[in-house]
């Protein structure tokens, strides 16, 4: 997707990934930025964010949100922790194994405090059914 700049004011924000590389089965919606689960099971979720800007955020979180709920759902496999970033160019990566049901949906969200950050077009996330 295109570069996007966000002011980090503490609110949870869905990151707008408006394009796909592979979208086997068309389960990812490029309009609402959600992956809808077609088959119950364990899914591997990975992400890589490229951030740029000349300020340092006090803290930031990134994680896959389940069914629009901003919470840690250990049953579903959601956990997260905050991180700080450096000024200029910075990359963060993560992975989860999530236990999901048919019609659950996932979007990628972030929140932070302290400045402005640009999410660059090289950022991406993926989901894969493990079984």
List the helices and strands and how they pair.
Layout: E1 4-9, E2 13-14, E3 28-29, E4 34-36, E5 41-53, E6 59-66, E7 88-100, E8 105-119, E9 124-129
Antiparallel strand pairs: 1-8, 2-8, 3-4, 4-8, 5-7, 5-8, 5-9, 6-8
If you had to describe this structure to a student in words, what would you say it looks like?
This protein is an all-beta fold and 131 residues long. Helix content is 0%, strand content 52%. It contains no helices and 9 strands. Strands 1, 2, 3, 4, 5, 6, 7, 8 and 9 form a 9-stranded antiparallel β-sheet that branches. A hairpin with a 4-residue loop joins strand 3 and strand 4. The chain is globular. The two termini are 29 Å apart.
Order of SSEs = EEEEEEEEE
Q: What amount of the residues lies in strands?
A: over 45%
| Helix residue percentage | under 10%
Gross geometry: globular
Helix tally equals 0
Low-confidence stretches: none
Q: How is the biggest beta sheet arranged?
A: 9 strands, antiparallel
Q: What's the rounded overall pLDDT mean?
A: 81
Structural class: mainly beta
